[in-house]
Amino acid sequence: MLDVRKLRLLRELAHRGTIAAVAEALSYTPSAVSQQLSALEREAGTALLERTGRRVGLTAAGRALAARTETVLAALAEAEAELAAARTGLTGTLRIGAFPTAVRTVLSPALVALSSAHPGLELRVSELDPAVVPDALRADAIDVALVQEYDFTASPDDPALETEPLLEETIHLAALSAGPPRAHRDAPWIAATPGTLCHTMTVRACEAEGFTPRVRHHADDFGAVLALVAAGQGVALVPDLGLLDPPAGIVLTPLAARRRTRIAYRRGTAAHPLVAAARSALHSADGPGAFTL
To answer: Which Pfam families match (predicted)?
Structure first.
């Protein structure tokens, strides 16, 4: 019989591309990953890996088995969820990942509700950029997270994860004068750290207007971004949740672009009591009166 733990390593190799990346994500040594995958080949009775020098890829059989592993792991997660639901009381550790603006607005009231309803629950929050959330979920580093996508940065589907919509926001151009992005094409721009979704959104939104922004400053906290705008250091794109307390003098021009936040969790875990409680609390926090923009 095929070992589920080894199958998971094969799935992660198909996703991450290298044994070193799999080892780092799952806290193994590269040699241990290699040994386990070799053992899986022996169990399968067919070649699953293609080795070219130091590079390792998957054979057709390996790719097919990795794809089927998604269904196997999801079924096991659903079975674990059913067992957990049979227990009395909600206890244990719930690990939540969220981006900064969501921590201050949506997540904080959700945490209060969870602590009040389930005093035996231990809550752990990690501030994560949405770009790294999928891998954190796959690696079982967190249980549930908030991810986002912009009109210009649609996220690819990940077969290991499930998501559901939470909220949608308008994106605004923050400047010292009104006008769409193209009216500020020659101004210095303020954007998030390269590699983050917010940075990609800024660049692509400007490119859609026919120019490439001249980014002078990088800041990931929207409070810092707005302070730089108020100081005359440039213009920036900011979603609703980043505008809780804008400095005086800033002109906000709403754009047609939107940011959408979704709740994400591993496939098969939606009904797990911990994940279900988090989903319910997050949806309640997004309800009327939960926060004010």
So the answer is: HTH_1 (PF00126), LysR_substrate (PF03466)
Instruction: Report yes or no: 94 and 125 within 8 Å, Cβ to Cβ.
Output: no
* Closest listed residue to residue 279, CA positions, set 288, 269, 289: 269
Domains of the chain, CATH where assigned: 4-85 (1.10.10.10), 90-293 (3.40.190.290)
Please count the residues of the chain: 293
| Helix (H), strand (E) counts: the chain | 10, 10
Sign of CA dihedral 285, 107, 136, 197: positive
CA neighbor of 219 nearest in space, from 242, 241, 187, 240: 242
Tell me what the mean pLDDT of segment 88-94 comes to: 88
120-177 pLDDT tens trace: 999 999 999 888 899 999 999 999 999 988 888 877 788 999 999 999 999 999 999 9
3-state DSSP assignment of residue 237: strand
CA distance 101 to 124: 17
Sign for the pseudo-dihedral over CA of 158, 164, 169, 174: negative
d(CA 229, CA 175): 6
H-helix segments, 133-244: 133-138, 197-208, 222-230
Rounded to 5°, the CA angle 242-248-254 comes to: 50
Q: Is the dihedral of CA 252, 254, 257, 262 positive or negative?
A: positive
Token digits for 27? 């806290």
DSSP 113-138: HHHHH-TTEEEEEEE--GGGHHHHHH
